[in-house]
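Reminder: ligand-aware prediction takes two inputs, not one.
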Amino acid sequence: MASQLLNVPHLAFFPKISPFNPPLFSTLKPSFFHSTSTSRALKTSSNSRIINLQAVAETSSEIESNSATDTAALTLRKICQGFVPEHILHRMEEIGFISPTDIQREALPTLFTGRDCILHAQTGSGKTLTYLLLIFSLINPQRSSVQAVIVVPTRELGMQVTKVARMLAAKSEIDVKGCTVMALLDGGTLRRHKSWLKAEPPAILVATVASLCHMLEKHIFRLDSVKVLVVDEVDFLFYSSKQVGSVRKLLTSFSSCDKRQTVFASASIPQHKHFVHDCIQQKWTKRDVVHVHVSAIMPMPLCLLHRFVMCEKTNKHQVLRALLESDAPESAIIFVGEQSEKSKKAGNDPSTTLLMEFLKTSYKGSLEILLLEGDMNFNSRAASLTEIRQGGGFLLVSTDIAARGIDLPETTHIFNFDLPQTVTDYLHRAGRAGRKPFSDRKCIVANLITAEERFVLQRYENELMFSCEELML
Ligand SMILES: Nc1ncnc2c1ncn2[C@@H]1O[C@H](COP(=O)(O)OP(=O)(O)OP(=O)(O)O)[C@@H](O)[C@H]1O
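Here is what comes back for the chain with adenosine-5'-triphosphate:
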């Protein structure tokens, strides 16, 4: 193991809080929200709509948990017994899911009562298993209809969720028919899926928004028999993707919140009180939706140690190589910014290509160098992740496409070769490391910044409440 990683001094967390720069990540706002989170009635900047948050408080409720209570004896089996079929519980334990994570302990009892929930917990905290256990508690594999839909933002996340669902649903003697899980993802062969959906609908459908809406608009199937609708990375789908219109349609036109249980999940729900309000007002959820907020005062996992190296833009490749040599990560993701339209038009090579070329010629370590970016075709994207999952250490050069939801538990280091554009992006990129729920292993998030970018990183530190140590090379 790398000496750098083992010898990192224990960082005390002294968030830099100033009255002008409030540290509450929960008050982060998409640009169309007013910034004052404390007032009861707020005006949105875009349409002067008055929001009465009191109304939200009267209907929905919030479970806020910041510390792990003494529940050593509480197992996932105990929480799920009587709700989740025995053969799923057995599989769950075979895979190694024995003790509940905080979100599983806090949310599952509420989910089993049938209430809509917003699962709001740190990256790598086990939200996927939480909603999958709910789904397995509700579906009947003997029925030939789509009973649960999980909506995800990217094909990669869809493949990952499908894999976990299939692992849990693996055929058993009890469940003779087996529970079918279909991945309906952008870039797939929709023709084959159309016939499959019509002939033998799967019990669980994991889908990206565009592919799902295409099938619904073409009347290939309907959501009538859907008991649970999950939207994973919900804030991304609502605030950052171009598909927000389709997501809204999915929640209100193609199905009704009264007829299903709705679950939203993310590690970041900016302005969550407004979001809960919108859920109720827009009928995305029922009125008594529960916001389960775990580690509300600690948005990022404590096992992440954050550092920065100040350097010239022109010197970043060399600095990265020096960091790779000194830290010798077991596996790492190197995040690079998207190429701008202007740079594309000018015919420049994207930073990802330049970095790949540099690493291939000058990195002398043993890790496999792989690339993942949106412009690659779907097959190459799948090949990169498949190679990673086959084991062995990797250096994955990626744009933000790998920042959401991707679970590569062996990742010990994140390098922000380019600083992320937003504080939310920082949280999700950093959260690709430190993904072993009960491990106290420290992981490193290293930022390569220019002097002018220091204040941006400082802002991220304030808002996400972490402290970044300067590293001198
Ligand atoms: N109860 C458990 N015991 C052990 N490992 C678990 C448990 N629950 C989940 N995990 C593991 O924790 C890791 C992170 O889980 P998951 O991908 O669901 O995180 P997440 O909360 O969805 O994170 P993100 O917000 O980044 O998407 C996975 O490798 C998963 O297998």
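Confidence is low (pLDDT under 50) at residues 1-53. The CA atoms of residues 63 and 211 lie 34 Å apart. We will return to this case in the review session.
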